[in-house]
Design goal:
The structure is a homotetramer of 319-residue chains. With 319 residues, chain A is of the alpha/beta class. Helix content of chain A is 43%, strand content 18%.
Chain lengths: 319, 319, 319, 319
């Protein structure tokens, strides 16, 4: 293998640039050429491929987002789109690919391997942490710290006013963000899709605290009751409690990555180049107990990664 | 004057604690006793008054929110409520009061002076900066930096995706926050109540940029078109442009105050004690061109503070 | 067991307050009384013991430092000092103790168990991460992020000037901080006590980069060559290179804890109460692979925790 | 005037990039070409001149440092060096220059105007704030916030240990940084070159506080007694007090600029292009009371900008 390419896809996540940098430096160290596909699968179809070197990746380790841009491509979900992409890759002499993204990205990566036999390995890049096969995904640690800092600020005003604040954090299918953020924000209530959310219990906690006290409720966007706005509406309609709503939204995706995310991304970047060179394909390169783990791409979306049991207990004891 | 009290009221603002600390230390230096009224006008009516000393105000200079809590009191808007409050103050021997808040607070402060002749001076504590009689209000500098940092994060993801992002910042009656934040975020469009918002112009800018490029639009919540959600709806309905919406919300109120806010609050805190002792009442203590300025409370809400002309030009040239 | 106490000792670390909070809330949930010993071993000797409840520990989860203060006590290193401390504990009815600190703290804890049979468990609270028996210590994650943020700032100025900057980070006996910080700062050279530091190699890297380019060198304070000042002196004397020195110092100890540190501290706090109640003593409560692990106190200082092998490789490939 | 150039020189300061961006965008709006001189006066001598456009300056408003690099050039201090630089400028068709830096930069700018009649205006870019002719310099606001945040972290550990901490901040000739930072850190003692530093007084304050309490001393590096290390030595020798020393150093120069610095830099950038086009030369473009002010370059270093009197009083009352 003499030429490989790296791309980022789906929602961007802090640390993707650290991964790109590690892929580039480690490829150079191994004496192979490395390219970047700009704009995810769309860029692959368009053949938007650039040479990467030390200069292009200097000083990007501390930047949020991704210098290779990202996109969601409908065309790539069709066979024809993937065939066009595969041709562009072959025309450019690309012999192996490193994909960074979430399960949508891995579906596409799996298909291109199945259909066109271009070796491809995935690396987990998503703030949601909802990928089987790795303890943490790239971007998760930054996202939870960004969210916790935001909630520390909200707590200032919540304390000053003595009110109920409902804060919605990201996580469409899993409560990882809500759980870690809720525990570390010292929230009074945490709602995640993994456990049954009992609004009567929330109401009782508000009463126990006293309506004059601040109450902070963290809601994962994927909770079965609904998002923060729904929570507030129910509190109003059923319990006559006025709550303030904040939806943290896109600030959770950005920002300079934390040390954990930079080191994890560096580790996975170096390991993914080694995996390609060792002939691995159709697998995700993850980190489990600080060691590199290989998981078939299919397992990453078909198997469910659970929240740590101890966190559910902590949420119970400490809120 | 031997006993004075300080309180915070209305929306909380970072720097209120620095003001409380300065009032306390400066009172002690002048040999007078100082008290805190807990919970704004509600606390005044209830007589929730505590002694303050160096110990109670140690280490609060860096804290957001207000250790004296705040509230909005309907009762105080009635003559009877104010009479009850005045009695509580007199029973506690309070001979002068320092109020920190916005125009609602100053209305109440003015009334209690008019009706009960308890000397009272106001200090401008609101993140909105919309008070006549001071260059800046306590909390404004922190709020704009918090908002700008949040938008820096959103820009990471906006750049990665190449999309239109509409971000709503606080400021119900004035565009101070939106203007400073928009200029410093390098936004492509800034909508403030002080100028006419032209959506055709925004549409043209998006087209000029290219729909594939990121476009960041900063909307002050008081803009005549409406908030960010309305903006997005219009862009969708009239121009067929999909935009992502983020409402920064309550994170703008919290957080450790910036140096500017800590120093301003300290300056105004010391000056307000001096003003009370010098027999001043019914005035707001502000800072204009780095010097203490006294403005009749009535003027603070009846006169309009304009945005700097140069900022409107900057927004035009630089966006 | 009906009454337990918690204390912090040695160097303070961010997250100690989160641990105290978790100990208190979890004790209350178990129906036992919980006390705080103020000022570490000195406070134990003086009997400086206070009752802790939900109120005393509200809102401390986000605070750096330790509300229970800390100290280094020479008196406690003598048998007499420990006997005095044990008597004070018994007089107060304390039946079990949770200590949070580093190896100095654990020596003392071990001795008081050996000599006075007061059950005691340790929790790892030190920014250095150099304790055997836990993947991470409380405070480490915050310290590395603080250091990395500081170095991101230094890189701005290093890039602008194109110079050699030598930055010293904490870690007297181990290079954990230097390694993680060096990798995530994108440093050109990392010096840790665990590997041989080759200054000729550093000189070659500076030459390869070009003397006009910025070069960032991260030095752990325990490196066998010496600290940053020594490094700069040698570069000057032996290689005629002018380098700027920054010693990060005490800022690495403070600051609001990261999510990882808050969750880790909460986990260990709850587990340490359970351990005491389950009859455990003379052990440290750590976390290995996200699970609670018990390690004899003696092992925590006599066994050596190594840096991950992969990090040494990363440092080699990526710098 | 059809072609102008901008450069940064001396110590870098956060906000320099915002100035460059404003110069570029405003030049484009006026229909003139704009160039960047890379590496300050050294780059001028070497003719290291690049074309700047919207693309080169996109997204730089939030970056610390300067994309145009900076340097200190001995060659430019000679007539011959300046003649070589002037020739390079003329060869490139540069008809006017905008310099961003401190008094060293302005000396050079003044000379090149005097000797070669190339129109040049200066903009105040230095974290020290010690330039006559502007209320604030670009970079100052960021530097004081960076320093205050660092000291907030040190206070965590100072409070936990109850010790004397001496923190040295930048400012070789003026105490602006030390004064603002000291007030907002709630320091117990502030030493600046503008006032007489009385160590007996410091000793008395430490005694009053109690040696067991934390005491934070902020020392400006230009204080007549000396830096933090000298302070600690004197406290040890004369008063037998052990103090911890932290020298904040280069972290004060870097980091993403605050809103104030971004807006100030944008304002001065736009105004400096207008000044050149209006035929102004040999002046610094500053901001006084929010309005643009022109000051002969010579005055910027020969006249002394004093610290606000009220700050000296605040320091006295509040420490």
């Amino acid at each position: 293998m003499k030429k490989i390419a790296v791309f980022t896809s789906g929602g961007d996540a802090p640390g993707m640039n650290a991964l790109i940098r590690a892929v580039v430096r480690s490829s150079i160290a191994k004496g192979i050429e490395v390219f970047g596909i700009v704009g995810g699968f769309s860029g692959m179809i368009e053949g938007n491929i650039i040479k990467l070197g030390r200069k292009e990746t200097a000083n990007i380790i501390s930047l949020g987002g991704t210098i290779l841009k990202t996109s969601r491509s409908k065309e790539f979900m069709q066979k024809g789109g993937r065939a066009a992409a595969a041709e562009k890759l072959k025309n450019n002499g690309i012999e192996g690919i490193i994909a960074c993204g979430g399960d949508g990205t891995f579906h596409g990566a799996h298909d291109i391997w199945e259909e066109h036999k271009i070796p491809i390995v995935g690396t987990p890049g998503t703030i949601d942490n909802d990928l089987y096969g790795t303890d943490y995904t790239i971007g998760f640690d930054t996202a939870i710290n960004t969210a916790a800092e935001a909630i520390d600020k909200i707590r200032d005003t919540a304390d000053s006013h003595g009110r109920v604040f409902i804060v919605e954090v990201m996580g469409r299918h899993a409560g990882f963000i809500a759980m870690d953020v809720g525990i570390s924000a010292g929230a009074e209530f945490i709602a995640v899709p993994e456990t049954v959310t009992n609004l009567d219990q929330l109401y009782q906690r508000i009463l126990t605290q006293g309506k004059q006290q601040r109450t902070i409720v963290i809601v994962g966007e994927g909770d079965e009751v609904g998002g923060a706005t729904t929570f507030a509406q129910i509190l109003k309609d059923q319990y006559e409690i006025d709550a303030k709503v904040t939806i943290l939204g896109h600030i959770q995706r950005g920002g300079s990555p934390t040390v954990r995310d930079r080191v994890l991304a560096s580790h996975l970047g170096v390991a993914s180049v080694e995996a390609l060179l060792a002939g691995k394909t159709d697998v995700m390169i993850g980190e489990i107990n600080s060691k590199i783990a290989y998981t078939p791409l299919k397992d990453t979306w078909s198997k469910k990664k659970p929240i740590h049991e101890y966190q559910i207990q902590l949420a119970d004891i400490l809120t």
